Amino acid sequence: MVRQFLPLNGLRAFEASARHLSFTRAAIELCVTQAAVSQQVKGLEKRLGVALFQRLPRGLKITAEGEALLPTVSASFDQMATTLDRIEAGQVRELLFLGVVGTFAVGWLLPRLADFQRRHPFINVRVSTNNNRVDPAAEGLDFAIRFGSGSWHGTEAQRLSEAPLSALCIPKLAEDLRSPADLAGATLLRSYRTDEWSTWFAAAGVPPADQVNAGIVFDSSVAMMEAALQGLGVALAPPSMFSRHLSSGAIVQPFATTISLGSYWLTRLQSRPVTPAMRAFSDWLFAQA
Where are the coiled-coil regions (predicted)? Predict the structure, then answer.
C-alpha cells in the first residue's frame, strides 16, 4: 500500500493539544513555541478541511472531527513509542506487562526482580500494583498476580504460594497481649474482607461472645502494615510477605495462630498467547517460589 505523505508534525501537535486542551501546554511538552504548535494544527486543519478545535478565551474545545481523529492518532503514537522502546543498540527488547497485588509486589516480587533482570536483560518489565481488583484485558496485562481461590472467569491460574494470615503489631503493643482474647481491647486493622478477624479468633479458640470484629479497614495489606508500624493497631496480615519487618524486630507476631483464606496465583487470560517473555518470567517465578 502506497501511503500519501503523513503530516507527522501536525498530528503530533494535534495529539498533544488535545490531551492538554491547550496550545501552550502542548508547546511545553514538545519543546517548541506556542505559535509553532498553533501553526502546525492550523496546517493540519487546512489539509483535512475541518476544524479540530474551537479556540476559546481560556483554552481549547475539541470538535466532533477532532474526537474522531484523536483515538487513532494516540494509539498510533503509543504503538510507535512501544516499538522504538523495544529496539536498543541493535537488540530487540521484549516488553512484559504485570499487574501485581500490592502486598505480593512489595513483600515478595520486588526484592527478587533484579535477579530476573540479570538473567533476562532484554526483557523490559512494566509493573502496576493493585488492591486485588484488576482487569487484565482492559489494562493490557500479560500476567496478573492475584490473591484468592484461583477461580476467575476466562483465566488460567497457577498457584504460587499460600499466604496464611496472623496477628502482627509493634513490640510495644505486644507487651499487653498475653492471650488472643486480649485483642478485644486492641484496635484491630483489617482488609475489606469482613470475616478475617472472626475466622482468626475462632482458630485461636476465642469464644464468639468475646470476639471483636470492628476495626480500621484498609484496601491493601501494605497500607495496613504501615499503620501497624506507626502503632495504630494490630494487623491481620501474611507474615511471609513482611519477613523483613519481622527480621528487623520492627514488627512481631505475638501468637502462632494463622488462618488461610486464599493463595497467590499467577494468572493469564486464556485468550492471550504466551510470548517468549511470558514463558521466561513464568519459569523464573516458579523456580523462585
Answer: none
The 10s digit of each residue's pLDDT in 100-153 is 999 999 999 999 999 999 999 989 999 999 988 899 998 999 999 999 999 999
Beta carbons within 8 Å of 40's beta carbon, 6+ residues apart: 9, 10, 12, 13, 14
Pairing mode of beta strands 91-92, 87-88: antiparallel
